[in-house]
Specification:
Elements lengths: L2 H9 L18 H15 L3 H13 L4 H15 L1 H14 L8
Length: 102
């Protein structure tokens, strides 16, 4: 399915896209897809296990810890400082760092 057809389905809330079916990205690399999903998890305030899953996927796809942290920095203007600050301890744990309180 080309991007135009996918966009059309999204615009009309086509029943075929329920639960994400038929929306498998075909152009994004596995690494970029994992980083985008991590950004989405921060935006919606995901749970700690979700951060672990998405960060593991990013690392397995070749992302570095620095790239993962860059995602947090890049999305601050969009999702806001409070969302990123709330996510940072879960991201730190998923990367093997022990978060600390200041």
């Amino acid at each position: 399915m080309d991007y135009g057809e996918t966009l059309q389905r999204l615009m009309v809330n086509d029943a075929r896209i329920e639960d994400g079916q038929g929306l498998e990205p075909g152009v994004l690399s596995a690494k970029l897809l994992a980083l985008v999903r991590l950004a989405a998890v921060v935006a919606v305030g995901g749970s700690a296990p979700t951060y672990g899953t998405e960060i593991d996927a990013a690392l397995n796809a070749g992302a570095s810890a620095a790239e993962i942290v860059d995602v947090l920095c890049a999305i601050v203007p969009v999702v806001g400082v409070p969302n990123v600050v709330a996510a940072a301890p879960d991201v730190a744990l998923a990367l093997g760092f022990e978060p600390f309180e200041s």
